[in-house]
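Teaching assistant's notes for section 4

Start the section by putting this record on the projector. Ask students to predict, before seeing the second block, whether N-acetyltransferase domain-containing protein will look compact or extended. Collect guesses on the board.
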Amino acid sequence: MISIPTASLASFSQREEMVDQYHAESKILIREFNSDVDVNMVRKLESDCEIGTKKMLSIFTNITSDPLSRIRFYPLHVMLVAELVESRELVGAVRGCIKSVGTLSGSILKMGCILGLRVSPTYRRKGVALKLVTAVEEWMLRNGAEYAFLATEKGNNASKNLFTIKCNYVNLSSLVIFAHPITSSHINHISKDIKIEKLDTDLAISLYKRISRVKDLYSLDMDAILKEKLNLGTWVSYYKEEGCWLNSLSKVNNQQFMSNEISSGSWVIFSIWNTCEAYNYKLQVRNAQSLINYFLATLDLERIFPCLGMSVNGSNICRPFGFLFLYGIHGEGENIGNLMESIWRFASRVGKGMKDCRMVVTELGFGDPLATHVPQTTSMSCIEDLWYTKRLSSVGDDENDKPVMKGEMGNVFVDPRDF
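Reveal the predicted structure now:
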């Protein structure tokens, strides 16, 4: 009997894995998505990439009805797919877009965003994701992007390792996603002392342009965002006793508006994005009863399911749901705590009348002053989000580049199109 040292076995296994990876990479073609022939294969790929397995909790963002739904809001966008040369099967996909953003230092950056990276479970750890990321970065660079940008959950170690270790991305910012369920108790009461008034779109655009001066990172095309049909509107919450200052704003010209103080009182501005119309989110639990004890030890299902109006005791749950996304939240004044609570209640009322709307969600940077004023309830869930960036082009001002590459972006504008 011949004894083979453990180290030799490990080395052999590693070499075998490298050979498998080489063959997998050599047989894969990265090309642009063809809407005429690829839709069904993308549908299958998205289904295969559901989070979890058929026997476990699965939260799935279903965008197969429109594979370009997350990027078509941008004039410059692309979707790339990874195709097996022999069988023509699609085993991966990535979406990318390019937009211009401004920074607190006054610089303007052309930034490419990576959205919706998917790799078939049977082809993971074979270099497919790396090839897709490299290809979309090359597309961004050809189209003038100076930086690449992406977001991932803090707990997604595979994604973090791919981008930081293999692709040389650096941390740009840390944020937290707040999710509140839409329940009757949450929407019953808004203080009679508080007024919530809808803004004219042009006035909202001017107001956001002024607000952007205090943001570390913000989108330059607020007019396109606010005029998009998925945007339900922009409102301001303020105290009635401090008077209605909105009428006076509409009477001043834009130059005066940008240079003068808006109000000496307390106020909060916010906009609402309707994700119910953008994507279908599905939560699936099969054989739930046999898994409840396990998941209760790892996930707070008693908080997750009430958010969606579902029962933990169900043996088979599969229901589409959506949420309203609060964005552009900015407040000024000494007493904004109650105003922040009022906008959550207001958004919940809006969502209550919409089919399959289950939650109100927002995302704020750790450096955003309003992050500490988000109303805390026992039913609220929080997810930590990490933003990463990479410099693609050597052209640019290194001084303006420093805050970006050092991850000093704490108070950022979250673009609802990226969420």
